Amino acid sequence: MTTYEEHVRGLDDEIDPEFWKMPFGVEVDYDKLRFLYVPDHVSAFIASQVARKVYRYQIDNICTREQITHAVMVTMGGLLPGVLLHDHLAWTLNKNIPPIAFGTMGVRYYAGPGEPLDHPEILHPLSIDVKNMVVGVVEDLVDLGGTARFVTQYLYEERGARRVILIAPFLKTTAVMDEMEVISYGQVPKDTWIITPREKVETLIKRVPHWRDNGATLAACEANLRRIGYPQYLLDIYLRATYERG
Questions:
Q1: In which band, very low, low, confident or very high, does the pLDDT at 112 lie, cut at 50, 70 and 90?
Q2: Would you say the pTM of this structure is higher than 0.85?
Q3: Is 77 buried (19+), middle (13-18) or exposed (0-12) by CB count in 10 A?
Q4: Which residues pair with 137 in a beta bridge?
């Protein structure tokens, strides 16, 4: 059986698509959560698979004229998958498939994993006009679905979108699929903290003090991070400074 370490440290041509459709995290000491480290090349692979699903959606809707023409990257999480998807979807070799125009919208709805704010905050306004358009909303992860619901409602009621489709590499709940159209790649357990390439340092800085305060030594914190899949260069830069910070 392939181990967690082999999945997160494998090469580009060793990616196991089936594992990443239902990936499992790894347990570490001094923590109740599991952690799933998503390497850069795996993020790029997953984006290519999501793009294929979007392309299939476009093909299926040639006759209906309900193809996606605009995509909104919800910052911060939607920026990385959005940029990767842009490489696949902003151009077209098929005259029946429209290129997708990408824009951004800044929304803050969670203080932390599973910790929704009382009210969502728009941090920066929508950057493209989506009136009467079919719009893809790009996120990196759908946890409780609050951000997706808020953005979808906003696009319909405030910006006049004709149709909204959620696009996300990973879901933590399938309940959102009962409320809106969803294009995704995989599903992860609710107890798993996904570490995408955009939040490696952020996760280290947030979690090392938690482990330390629960009794972990510097060496134990390093062992945790190595077990999760962190490369040595990030430990060299951030681990000691984070551990010793008051």
A1: low
A2: yes
A3: buried
A4: 72, 166
